[in-house]
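Got a spare moment? Tell me how you read both lines of this record:
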Amino acid sequence: MATLGYFKWSFIVTITGLALGAWFGWHTAGTLGGAFSVFLICAVLAVLEISLSFDNAIVNANKLKEMTPKWQRRFLTWGIIIAVFGMRVIFPLAIVAIAASIGPFAAMQLALREPDEYFRIMLDAHLSIAAFGGTFLMMVALSFFFDEHKEIHWVHAIEERVSRYASVRGVEITFVLVLMILFAHLVAPQEKLTFLGSAVWGLLTFLLVDLLGNVLDKSGEALAGAAKGGLGAFLYLEVLDASFSFDGVIGAFALTQNLVVIAIGLGIGAMYVRSMTIMLVERGTLTQYRYLEHGAFYAILALSVIMYAQAIVHVPEVLTGLGGAAVIGTALWSSIRYNRRAEAD
């Protein structure tokens, strides 16, 4: 399939979403200026989501390789519905509902009628989300590097040495716990327990999802192949997407506080992430470019540290997205150079 063929549905969703955004802007403002403003915001939000989630697409593709065709299709259909509506709309609403001790319908009303108050509650919950998501993503990245069977190294001085210690049980967990305690001492005293509690839940969630995946994979025959290589990986990818998406939702509020506009813009971006995931799997791009996967996990590790740092200082989402894209771009460039040298030899 040609490259553009993978993005057919993304283009359709883009046209539909931008048209819907322009109509919504016209409906709420009643002017062409209002329509164009919402149209532009939706486009920028889509670009923001793509820049923040490109490494997510690479990790998705890496995990999808291990899944059965049935579960690959389920992730690429159900998963995108959960990603667009669940993680970009329902997930933030659930956080506000829990934080404000109100019902889901009341949280929806708050988002539509009092966006300023909705955003304030979201920001109040940001510390917990940053600690939870940062810990989960850090474990995702370290599990890739602390692998004694890992043979391909991009940054040899670091990766080769790290892989030697992979046989030491719990080394990556110890590393995360040390960082967790260090950052807990840097946050405000009244927020220390909140940060630590959320970080511990992030660690436990990773370990439980990883355990569930291993149990399902090893008991696949007993389950008649229904979940082998599938359900555990599916849950893992959904939690991973949740960790990525909330940062994008918070960043979206820098442009607009309207939940409908945010859902349209981030939903368009999520479709491109899905298309990139399919292309990476079907074309075997991760095999062709040997360091691309490494770049994605370095970007995830950097994002996890940034999420921890956001508990102390504000880090612009644009900087986060550009930084991740730069790391992945460098990894791609290194892969191309390696391929050229290999062909010459």
